[in-house]
């Protein structure tokens, strides 16, 4: 009997939601009014902040972040970020790591929705999602956002100036379904609205890596478990982008040469009904596997089982949304 595949996260943890602004998802810092000391592009790097004291360049101490000059006039500094994946924003992190005497004492964040491919000058309709609020230096400053609107861009404001290492925009992707109609798509892709809702073990890496876009860059770019020392197996739960029929599964173990799973299977759920989508099958290390499925049953969620443990760089599940699912996505996009 198949294990139950949950369709929602066990807890509402906004900080576990994907960073919609991440460069790894296609985010970009489009503009900033000043970047005298450190470049604006550092704001959305997907990597941890690094710092080496007493490393000076032509602009002063080298910082892994964005830093403006000391403001001598009224006003404030700002940077505009295009989200890699538009969506509903649940939380903002303004990380001032290693900025101790040069951090902004207050910040605010605005957001707007501008579908298509607008220029910076065409961005209008900015709305505050984080009011002017205190910030601390060398700290992870977290700000809750309670706004159901879909946004495509955010503007980080420093009051009046200073440095920020990273900006994280945690939220739920809401893609434009216009590109989904009558086309096969990856129903497990984060950029299409899918989400990781649970994992049996995430010792080495965040399991959301398995549904990120692009090719895996290294062994760390994906989902990898600890070595299992007890009976059983590891698993990963994914809520699909919408109810759809999966016809092709791709299980990619690229870069996993000595820690790939020996075997894998996939269970699927359509509401409360569960079924086997993909029977237990042997996998090879460091290999992108592609399996054509004889499946015509729709699903809303899946559980990837790996035996007994190991890593999965990427999982792709190609299929088509049902007409009702497409209509629901269109209604959410227009909301």
From TrEMBL:
Signal peptide: none annotated. InterPro entries: Allantoicase (IPR005164), Allantoicase_dom (IPR015908), Galactose-bd-like_sf (IPR008979). It is an enzyme of class 3 (hydrolase). The keyword Hydrolase applies. The keyword Magnesium does not apply. Its EC number is 3.5.3.4. Pathway: Nitrogen metabolism; (S)-allantoin degradation; (S)-ureidoglycolate from allantoate (aminidohydrolase route): step 1/1. One of its GO terms (biological process) is allantoin catabolic process. One of its GO terms (molecular function) is allantoicase activity. Belongs to the allantoicase family. This is Probable allantoicase.
């Amino acid at each position: 009997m198949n294990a139950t595949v949950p369709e929602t996260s066990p807890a509402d943890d906004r900080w576990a939601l994907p960073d919609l602004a991440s460069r790894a998802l296609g985010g970009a810092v489009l503009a900033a009014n000043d970047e005298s000391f450190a470049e604006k592009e550092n704001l959305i790097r997907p990597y941890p902040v690094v710092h080496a004291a007493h490393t000076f360049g032509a602009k002063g101490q080298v910082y892994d972040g964005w830093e403006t000059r000391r403001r001598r006039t009224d006003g404030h500094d700002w940077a505009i970020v295009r989200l890699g994946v538009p969506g509903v924003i649940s939380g903002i992190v303004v990380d001032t790591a290693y900025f101790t005497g040069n951090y902004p004492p207050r910040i605010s964040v605005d957001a707007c929705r501008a579908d298509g491919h607008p220029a910076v000058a065409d961005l209008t309709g900015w709305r505050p999602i984080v009011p002017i609020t205190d910030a601390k230096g060398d700290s992870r400053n977290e700000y809750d956002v309670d706004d159901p609107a879909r946004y495509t861009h955010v503007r980080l404001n420093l009051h009046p100036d200073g440095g920020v290492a990273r900006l994280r925009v945690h939220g739920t992707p809401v893609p434009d379904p216009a590109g989904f109609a009558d086309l096969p798509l990856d129903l497990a892709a984060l950029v299409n609205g899918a989400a990781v809702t649970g994992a049996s073990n995430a010792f080495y890496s965040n399991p959301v890596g398995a549904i990120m876009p692009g090719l895996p860059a290294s062994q760390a770019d994906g989902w990898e478990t600890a070595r299992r020392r007890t009976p059983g197996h590891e698993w990963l739960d994914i809520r699909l982008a919408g109810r759809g029929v999966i016809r092709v599964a791709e299980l990619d173990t690229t870069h996993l040469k000595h820690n790939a799973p020996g075997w894998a299977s996939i269970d699927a759920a359509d509401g409360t009904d569960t079924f086997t989508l993909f029977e237990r099958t042997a996998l090879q290390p460091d290999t992108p596997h592609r399996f054509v499925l004889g499946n015509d049953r729709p699903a809303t969620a899946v559980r990837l089982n790996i035996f007994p443990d190991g890593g999965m760089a990427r999982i792709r599940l190609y299929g088509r949304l049902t007409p009702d699912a497409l209509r629901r996505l269109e209604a959410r996009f227009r909301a």
